[in-house]
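Our preliminary data section would be incomplete without showing what the modeling component actually yields. Below, a chain of 663 amino acids is followed by its predicted structure, encoded as tokens that our downstream tools consume directly.
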Amino acid sequence: MSDERNGCSSCNTITGASTKDLLNQDLAKQVRTAYDRIDSRGMSSCLFGSSGTCCKVCNMGPCQIIDGVDSMVGVCGATADTVTARNFARIIAAGTAAHADHAREMVRGFIATAKGETPHEIKDVQKLHVMAEVFGIVTEGRDKNEIALELGNKALAEFGQQDGLLTMIKRAPKKQQAIWEKLGVEPRGIDREVVETMHRTHMGVDQEYRNIMLQSSRCALADGWGASMLSTELTDIMFGTPVPRRAIVDLGVLKGDHVNVTVHGHEPLLAEALCLAAEDAEILALVKKVGAKGLNLAGVCCTGNEILMRRGIPVAGSFIQQEMVLATGAVEAMVVDVQCVMPSVAQIVKGKHTDIITTNYRAKMPDAIHIQFEEHDAMGSAKKILIKAINNFKKRGDYYIPVDQKIDVVVGFSHETINYMLGGRFRQSYRPLNDNIINGRIKGVAAMVGCEHYKYADDVHFKIAVELLKNNVLILATGCAAQALGRRGLMRPEAAAEYCGAGLAEVCETVGMPPVLHVGSCVDNSRLLIALSEMVKEGGLGESIGDLPACGTAPLWMSEKAVAIGQYFVASGANVVFQNLPVTGAKAFNKYLLEGMKEEYGACWDYEEDPVKLAHKMIKAIDEKREALGINKKQDRVLFDMGMRRDLTTGHAGIPGVGCGQK
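Predicted structure:
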């Protein structure tokens, strides 16, 4: 580890002013972080692994494949295309499995809540009724918990289902469903698709890359239109559907005179229980007894996004900042469950007063304390965790909090919120959004999702976003990408005037919304699927998601989940651009992802290292969709007669340019 971090080769990738400030303090120089580990490796990534052509699915290898060289195929004869397709499929299966296991726990917690076995309650009854209708559940004359129990049991059955189709794929546009039926990629059961993908990529099974990718699409769709969508919808029903609220993010949200407890991971059952327990009289009394002015809960990574959206609880850091949160020396405990928790966190706090508390039997680590979170005794578990943290307060030594580093954000943009925000209480609708896309004020919609990455400069998300915004592309963001954009000030309504083109700025000003909408955690990308489906349903922009002027990116993807997300967007008809993909070592397979899939799904993958060029690839994809729709031209202004005005109260008048911001 170098004390001269400003001179290390990895320092140009350090994320944000708060991290740079902290790493320049003597306190932080005592710990070894990911930046130090990257700098000391002294080696580049394996060329075979990064291009997707290293095969290790059997014990005859590992085999390193060179496309087109007869002597450099696998021992079994597997070509670069077969190997790369299998590796890519396994990434998708792993990402889907992570979301599926997350979702299963949320469904189980939902069922327990319906039975009255948790401290939570069914909060969003309206959404409960919407989901009950989707699942064919009778609601009239029934108690909300009775309806919720039936919904929960039907949702849980979708994981182990062997035949038939997942219920929520019928929420997709009819044309989209027809595409899936024709290709044979309609997901049957969530777990079945993961298992079949792993089986088909086992040695000696599926060898044809197109066939492998059909199953990969089916697996990914089981994530987006199955597991992730179930998790998001049932979590909203149980904890409340997010609504816009102001909050703060970054390391400065920690408080020197408070007990600081950070919650890190992905399953909001734990985080919500901690929020409730933090208000308990016994806990508050103990906080006072140890001499603290209060208990400060703060989020990290996607659990942070969940409680930020629903409760306005501040977020201390994203995935890439988890070590920095601990390096402040001001955290009494970091409470973790599953996914994206780095093993290094326990080493960062070794010998210090901070506890790393694991809470899920699936995810333990050396040098951490394990307190199992029991959903049937959620308050008891949460209080036990908080008591352990509070008792650490008096042991705290030197600490440093970058107090000036906290950024205002506006978050909480669920599908329902966007619908209401655009159309109002009595005329909730995506009509204003569609109309402003048709009239050209908004060029299209971009999704910026996924992770952050230690190997890339911290301004990648920002550079892409600025380029999109000045070209009038509205951005919906999730996961750590959302936090990155929030830290750069793009989630304030005021940002529209500073960064947007004239058309998008006018729409944002009229509605009073930021140009980048925080839509939730990485599992909440299913909200984007519903939003895109609603845009199709509203009319005027084609008959499928593949017709919409929309594009997605997870430029700094780190997790396998991001690739699964990307695949379910492509299979749903939305183009997706990453900075890189492990597929470049196989010419035919690479060409299939970048071109061939478009013939099947109406969308394809792409990749581009340079962030500005990446943004323009997204803009080009959006423009192509606009051209195909015949809307990529200046729209004439239209004066309304009384008949046309009356039509607005009952439906769309059929005139481009009607809606939000029209003058």
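The chain has a mean pLDDT of 92. The domain at 54-239 is CATH 1.20.1270.30 (Substrate Binding Domain Of Dnak; Chain:A; Domain 2). Preliminary results of this kind motivate Aim 1 of the renewal.
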